[in-house]
Amino acid sequence: MFSFLKKKQSKNIRIVGTDQELLINDVAITFPTNYETLVTVFGEPSRTSKTKLSKSPVICWDAEGVYGSCGSYSHIYGFSLIFSKNHDLDLIPENNFSGSIIINNEEVQFDNFSKIEHPTYLVDKLTYKDKEEPYALSFRTNLDYKKEIPKDKYILQKQTEPHIEFIDFGFKLAVIEELMYTQEVLHPKFELYEFVEWYTKRKIDIEEEGYEPIAEVTQFFNDLQIPKHMAPLLTEIYQDGGNDVYMNLLRFGSGSEDYWDIKSAADVKNFPNLKKATLCYAEDTVYDEMIAMGIDAESL
C-alpha cells in the first residue's frame, strides 16, 4: 500500500566503451545524441529545468544518478554520472550512479579513474571549481574529432517543384519544427554548431553572439523552401521555448523572446490537415483566427 510514496527504483545501467563505439544497455550512442535516445537507455527523466546563467535545459535522472545539459534536445553533446556530493550545483541528480562502466574490457572504478580519449568521445572526471575531489564522470563528444561536413550541406538549392509561400515567418518556424526536427522529412537538418563550423564568409562566435539572433542563421530559415508535397504531413504544430528550431536560432535564449511571434494565421490555408495548434509565441488574435478555421488552438 501507499506505493505512490515509494521512490522510483533505479534502472540497471551498463555502459560499455570501445575505440569503435559507446553502448548503453546495448544501445549505440553517438554524439551529438538526442533526448529520445537518452530516454530509451535511461528511462523517462525525473525532471528538466534550466540553468540560471545560460538558460540551457538540464535533464536529470534522479534514481539513476545521470544528468545532461544541452543547448537543444535534438543535439545533446554529453551526459554525466554523479559519484560524489562534492559540489554546490543546484540542478543535479539526488542519487549517485550505481551502474557499471566497462571501457576497453576493463571495469572502471571512479576512485582510480583517469581520462580516456576516443576518436569520437571523451570520458573524464568533473571537478567543481576549486575542490580537489571530482564529483562526476562526463561522457561527451570529442571536439578534436572533426566529422567532415559536406561543402554543399547548407547551400540551399532553388526548388524545382512548387513550394509554399509563407506570409508569416513565425508560423513558418513552427512548421519547420514539426517537419525538420519531429518528423525529420525536411532537409538539411539544421544544427547551429555544425553550421558555424561550415560557414566560411566570417567567423561566427556563438559564445559572444548567441544571446541575440545571428543574422546568417535567421537568413537560412528565411530562405529555406518547403515543398508543397509536404503540406499534408502537417497535422499539428506545437510551440515551446525549448523547441529545436528556437534553440538553433538563439543559443542562449530565455524562452520569453518575441522575435518569432505568429502575427497572422493566413498561412494555415496551405495546410489542409492541420487540426491542432499549441502556441506560446503568437498574438492573441491568432488564436481566434485559427479557431474560426476549425483548428483546436490553445496556449501552452
UniProtKB/TrEMBL annotation:
Pfam families: DUF6892, DUF7738. It comes from marine sediment metagenome. Residues 164-296 form the DUF6892 domain. This is DUF1963 domain-containing protein. InterPro entries: DUF6892 (IPR054187), DUF7738 (IPR056640). The lineage of its organism: unclassified sequences, metagenomes, ecological metagenomes. Coiled coil: none annotated. Residues 18-116 form the DUF7738 domain.
